[in-house]
Amino acid sequence: MKDTEPFAIKSYPVPMKYRDQVSEQIEQMLTYGIIERSTTPFINPLVVVPKKDNSVRLCLDARQINERMVEDHDGSEEIDQVLRRCNKIGVMSSVDLRSSFWQVPLAKESRKYTGFLHQGKTYQYTVVPFGLRISSSALNRAAENVLKGLEKKRS
């Protein structure tokens, strides 16, 4: 972080029709270790995004963190390079990770920056939340690490 001065951005109101769903998701996230209770002074707003199936997605409005975050220049490989390599592979597979960013642990010293409030209680993420500037590159690095060497293990 370029600037570690604490901030507390006012929370957005949760529409009444989504309040129960949001509370249930917060409880599930706590149970699964996605978030934890916190005393962090860094408070970001949560955004409730309605989905087509009438459920909701909780997103961290991480604009304040993103402005202060050191740039991560690690990106994805160019698609033409990936396709050239795929041309040589006999068998391929694909994986669809549910809530993929939540598969990537967040360093303990970085968790405090992901704080948010829900019903007067403070929480912080233990995994990379959707909305961080570095979320995609962190997921790419984790996937590369898991898949490292598989390309060479052809029969």
Give the structure's gist in a few sentences.
The protein is of the alpha+beta class. It has one domain: HIV Type 1 Reverse Transcriptase, Chain A, domain 1 (Roll).
**CATH architecture assignment:** Roll
State the name of the first-level CATH class.
Alpha Beta
Anisotropy-based shape = globular
Radius of gyration: 18 Å
- The CATH superfamily name is HIV Type 1 Reverse Transcriptase, subunit A, domain 1
Seen as an oligomer or otherwise, the chain set is single chain
Provide the domain count. Answer: 1
CATH fold group: HIV Type 1 Reverse Transcriptase, Chain A, domain 1
**Secondary-structure class:** alpha+beta
Largest sheet: 3 strands, antiparallel
> What's the total number of strands?
5
**Helix percent band:** 25-40%
- Tell me the span between the first and last alpha carbons: 45 Å
Mean pLDDT: 82
Q: How large a portion of the residues is in β-strands, by DSSP E?
A: 5-15%
Domain Reverse transcriptase: 49-152
GO biological process, one term: DNA biosynthetic process
Protein name: Reverse transcriptase domain-containing protein
Pfam families: RVT_1
